[in-house]
Amino acid sequence: MGITTGACLAALAIELVDSHHLSARLTITGLLPETAITSLETAEADVLSDITFGGSPLKVYLAFTAVPDGGGEALVVVALYDDRRVEVRVLRGGTSPLYSIFALSESAT
């Protein structure tokens, strides 16, 4: 899945997804080389597993990933929708804040 946002492209290759787990490879040009992400098991056992927001995603997964820019780890929020659309948000606070949103759709590759 991928979409171009300005000069930035994100791709998410989902390897495993079920009601309690997501494993995928996330790539964001200029920010994150292809990186494995795995949803947090502890969040899936908490009320956070039912997180929702505008657009009513079917399921939302939370993961952390190291970002090689030296600013530390970032939270990755993956929201799956019933129309095979996926939104990926990457957030980080501190001295090198990040907030990126990518609306992805299924691609043929």
Describe how the helices and strands are arranged.
Layout: E1 2-5, E2 8-18, E3 21-28, E4 32-38, H1 41-44, E5 59-67, E6 72-80, E7 85-92, E8 98-105
Antiparallel strand pairs: 1-2, 2-3, 3-4, 5-6, 6-7, 7-8
Choose one word for the global shape.
globular
**Number of helices, where a helix is a run of at least 4 consecutive DSSP H or I residues:** 1
Number of strands: 8
Give me the side-by-side strand order of the main sheet: 1-2-3-4
Low-confidence stretches: 1-5
Distance, first to last CA:
8 Å
* Helix percent band: under 10%
In short:
With 109 residues, the chain is mostly beta strands. The chain has one domain.
What labels would you give this structure?
109 residues, mainly beta, four-stranded antiparallel sheet, 1 helix, 8 strands, globular
Walk me through the structure:
- By secondary structure, this protein is mainly beta.
- The protein has one domain (2-105).
- The chain contains one helix and eight strands.
- The protein has one helix spanning 41-44; strands at 2-5, 8-18, 21-28, 32-38, 59-67, 72-80, 85-92, 98-105.
- The strands form two sheets. It has a four-stranded antiparallel beta sheet, with no helix packed on it. Strands 5-6-7-8 form a four-stranded antiparallel beta sheet, with no helix packed on it.
- A hairpin with a 4-residue loop joins β6 and β7 (85-92).
- The longest helix is centred in the middle third of the chain and has 4 residues, at 41-44.
- It starts with a strand and ends with a strand.
